[in-house]
Amino acid sequence: MRLAARPVGLPKPSDWNFTEEKVVEPAEGQLLVKVLYLSLDPAMRGWMNDAKSYIPPVGLGEVMRAGAIGKVIASKHPKFAVGDEVSGAFGVQEYALSDGKGLIKVSSKLAPLPVYLGTLGMPGMTAYFGILDVGELKEGDTVVVSGAAGAVGTVVGQIAKIKGCRVIGIAGGADKCEWLVKELGFDAAIDYKSEDVKKALREHCPKGMDVYFDNVGGDILDAALTQLARGARIVICGAISQYNNTTPVKGPSNYLSLLVNRASMKGMVVFDYADRYADAAKEMAGWMMAGKLKSREDIVEGLNTFPDTLLKLFKGENTGKLVLKVSKD
Amino acid sequence: MRLAARPVGLPKPSDWNFTEEKVVEPAEGQLLVKVLYLSLDPAMRGWMNDAKSYIPPVGLGEVMRAGAIGKVIASKHPKFAVGDEVSGAFGVQEYALSDGKGLIKVSSKLAPLPVYLGTLGMPGMTAYFGILDVGELKEGDTVVVSGAAGAVGTVVGQIAKIKGCRVIGIAGGADKCEWLVKELGFDAAIDYKSEDVKKALREHCPKGMDVYFDNVGGDILDAALTQLARGARIVICGAISQYNNTTPVKGPSNYLSLLVNRASMKGMVVFDYADRYADAAKEMAGWMMAGKLKSREDIVEGLNTFPDTLLKLFKGENTGKLVLKVSKD
Predict the structure, then answer these.
(1) Using a CB-CB distance cutoff of 8 angstroms, which residues of chain B are in contact with residue A217?
(2) Cα dist from B68 to A174, A208, A327, whole Å
(3) Per-10-residue mean pLDDT for chain A, 329 residues long?
(4) Average pLDDT value over all residues in chain B
């Protein structure tokens, strides 16, 4: 799936170009991967813009960048053998050639493969380092997370519960909210589609929030700013409400609350923690084994559905990690 | 000078009520102060609004709150004697009764009295703790300060120079900019009234800024956000461009630059550092004696000019600390 045009607003079918090409045999030092599962992430929208960011944009005509899980089907690389299960940035395609750089071996014996794109993948790492390092989480903190039913939000909230915090999630829809509380053990959830978020935050956080983990930006970030505790930490992880804007990003009008409350707002990019991924994954796998951390994936089948399936993220239709199943395991 | 009405936008003469009353003798435990100099601060505008903040608003009909320097002219307080020079929140009036709480003795033998409202007063303390503690200043940093010719900005920039940083000031007008560079030793100054701030920042900070100390908010904050270095710290000290808004505060549209650059934005209130004021003042007085830190006050005479003189702050007409001289020393 190649990027055909720079989208304006929500990506349209015509922004994509589906091409079929012969699968090439790996050269010396390369391996060929059959892609099984693709990770669909809000950040993809940013990669489609021709703008300077933490990673270069995807070029027009290039295969769309995507994290993925695959199986090695041919190898002339000393470290990878046919049958190895691997995680890497294979892109939105059925087969990928790789020189092995950045590839991580995974195992379907330890966890279902899609989990390596969610809780044990980038979203899980983002949640782990975002809430623990950037958010400087302490036991007893009141924690609020937006996009709470998404791949990052579900893990943020559960880690905060594991660490002895009170956790309030903000998500869209009664089903998601019920699931957050009943299944994931959140203390409360606010349905931004039917509730007044500012008022609900006032009720659920009468003493203010100590950590606010923001995945959405826009009006919800502004509402959160009205309910900070003294010394609160805001983690800026994303702003999905703003990614498809055709007008300028909505800046947080209430940012002077940072001053009044001696609070901070800090941005993060998960790649900075790459040298600690392995330790984090080990700890998170332990929590999963102990039943303290639940992983949920929202799996859609068929590479051809990619243009539509990606939109589920921006429409808030996914619960848990959105994964595209490309081929059978 | 009493607050007569909650101002909408810039305070008007009719928002004030000038009253004359008999001066009362101090009761047991009280002292009477003759007010000599009043501190005029941007924060005063916030105190006039009926809104929750870091300090309660001034009530309608109450004497306007103001920091001031005065001389004790009558005392029934064991710790203060007639003739003592004192700093305290005496308010916009000629005489003030005090119970001694929060009063600090000063001395015109060590520094001219108005300096205790500026470089050795709240603005100086704000600059000191803001740039050193909140801004986590390091030698070699590129530092940008807005409102650079104001009471806080002048001190921020000079402290950063003392600490071995490159300092760029943003101020309004060629005179102020020239003064910042020639008199205060800033490396460069940007005149926001005649220059494109974003473009000028790109030229003066080709590698981005490590610390941005913001006194103004609005478009200048947004311009600064486009030019952050990796790991930059933004100190939110004030937002003078927004204090007289009749529309909502302009949130920083470019705040996602915090994410891309792993940067932070942190608010501060100087009162939190009260237990360290004395040490800071000692160090700053040392720098002044050594000629490394210059203090400038913009002194206007006459209590009756208060409503107009206050507006100089919001029109950017002051250079250095704006002080109202009430009575002769």
Answers:
(1) 256
(2) 56, 34, 75
(3) 92 93 93 97 92 89 95 97 96 96 92 95 96 98 97 97 98 97 98 97 97 96 97 95 87 95 96 94 95 95 95 92 87
(4) 95
Partner residue opposite A269 with nearest CB, options B52, B53, B262? B262
Residue of B nearest to A55 (CA): B260
Q: What is the residue extent of each domain of chain A?
A: 2-118+296-325, 122-271
Domain B2-118+295-325: give its CATH architecture: Alpha-Beta Complex (3.90)
ipTM given for this complex: 0.91
Residues in chain A within 8 Å Cβ distance of B265: 255, 258, 264-266
**Cβ contacts from A onto B, under 8 A:** 105
Nearest by CB to residue B256, choosing from A239, A257, A262, is A239
Q: Do domains B2-118+295-325 and B122-271 have the same CATH topology?
A: no
The strand pairing partners of B68, in sequence order, are B38, B88
Give the residues across from A324 on adjacent strands.
Answer: A38, A300
Q: Nearest CA to CA, how far is A50 from chain B (Å)? A: 15
Fold of B122-271: Rossmann fold (3.40.50)
Residue A4 to chain B, least CA–CA distance (Å)? 25
Question: Domain A2-118+296-325, what architecture?
Answer: Alpha-Beta Complex (3.90)
Chain A residues with CB inside 8 Å of B129's CB? none
Structure tokens that stand for A328 in this block: 């059978």
- Residues of B whose CB is below 8 A from A269: 259-260, 262
